[in-house]
Amino acid sequence: MGPEALAQVLRPLRDLFTKEHHPDLLVGLDGSDDAAVYRISDDCAVIQTIDFFPPIVDDPYDFGAIAAANAMSDIYAMGGEVTLALNVCCFPDDLPSTVLQEILKGGADKVAEAGAVLAGGHTVTDKELKYGLSVTGTIHPNRILRKSGARPGDALILTKQLGTGITTTALKNEMLSAEEIHASVASMKALSRYAATILTKAQVTACTDVTGFSLLGHAYEIAENSGVALHIAAEKLPFLEHAEAAAGAKCFPGGTFRNRKYYDCVVRFEPSISEQQILMMFTPETSGGLLAAVDANDLDSIKSNFERANHSCWLIGEVVEGSGIEVTS
User: Fold this and answer.
1) Residue 64 contacts by C-beta under 8 Å, 6 or more apart in sequence?
2) Which segments of 15-145 does DSSP mark as H helices, in order?
3) How far apart are CA 281 and CA 259, in angstroms?
4) Among 83, 206, 217, 221, which is disulfide-ready with 150 (CB 3.0 to 4.6 Å)?
């Protein structure tokens, strides 16, 4: 569902489940954070999220692993650890059982990698295959990462390359092969657990994961919730192998244009930014990386910690005074 339609649907619910009526609901519908957080004691809160979608790659094991990693990403974006997961499955009657087993195995292996427990789930018959997880995590109530809190002077860090929405659309349109999107699949399967562990040791003022609303859509959520503007340097954005070529062939999913329609009014582009670059920044991502605002004084240590852990991160911009998003070349 696009951001405009989702905002319309959720509007009546936000007045019903408020922190005023439910004081232990630390993060709920009143904001646009990645997961719900409910306090169960002074030193423990539960993080709850759910995510599932149709296949975006052909290999069933990879699809299951990607869907699971994507669902768990919200927990890591909030600074928590995954503890428990349940399968959410929509399966056609005519799908071979071996395909279903591979999907579930891919998801189960990712849950195990997260150090969590897969304890069941729910399955329904559907004409369209869909799979994902309902995920529970835990966190100390005072250590929750949110989309609010970014401050002018903070640095913007991105922990995965962009372009999964473009490359998987190119695969669907038979413009790229499964071998050519190998790097995209590896990126989508990678857990954000390791990046979150590094970031939470620093002064992170705001954090989210980059998924369906695109880099610019999720960046705007940080800007809006924090009462600041974000400056993003287009030349510093990392894109996956073959993403630019696929974009040149106009392999953009429908969500790209929905995101642009909704967020275009709050993003200012330098005239030198091309139409192709603009669309690439508005394209949905699957199991994308963490986008974090961090204290600029911690930048060197963050980079060093990522290097020591053999993980990548990119400095893509900064937080400034103002509102909205500014993209320069």
Assistant:
1) 102, 103, 104, 105, 106, 107, 108, 110, 131
2) 60-77, 97-113
3) 10
4) 206
Give the start-end residues of each E strand in 56-203.
Answer: 81-91, 117-125, 130-139, 155-158
Amino acid at position 90, single letter: C
pLDDT tier, 188 (very low <50, low <70, confident <90, very high otherwise) = very high
Instruction: Give me 225's structure tokens.
Output: 């919730």
Phi first, then psi: what are they for 232, rounded to 5°?
A: -115, 130
Look at residue 71 and give its three-state secondary structure.
helix
Q: Token pair 């999913």 is at which residue?
A: 253
Count of CA atoms in the C-beta half-sphere (13 A) of 252:
21
**206 Cβ contact partners less than 8 Å away, ≥ 6 residues apart:** 145, 146, 147, 148, 149, 150, 154, 222, 225, 226, 292, 293
Do β-strands 36-41 and 130-139 pair in parallel, antiparallel, or remain unpaired?
Answer: unpaired
At residue 31, does pLDDT exceed 80? no
53 strand-pairing partners: 131
How far is 327 from 234, CA to CA, in rounded Å? 6
**What H or E segment, with its residue span, contains residue 13?**
helix 3-14
What secondary structure letter does DSSP report for 162? Answer: B
Q: Give the domain CATH number at 45.
A: 3.30.1330.10
The amino acid at residue 103 is I
Q: Are residues 66 and 170 in the same domain?
A: no
Beta bridge partners of 158: 291, 314
Answer whether residue 30 shows pLDDT above 80. no
Whether 264 shows a pLDDT value over 70: the answer reads yes
172 and 37 within one domain: no
| Residue 223 belongs to domain spanning | 155-328
Whether 311 is in a domain gets the answer yes
Are the beta carbons of 109 and 72 closer than 8 angstroms?
no
CA separation for the pair 97, 221 (Å, rounded): 41
The answer on pLDDT for 187 being more than 70 is yes
CA 90 to chain centre: 22
Contact indicator for 276, 248 with CB cutoff of 8 Å: yes
In one letter, which amino acid is 70? N
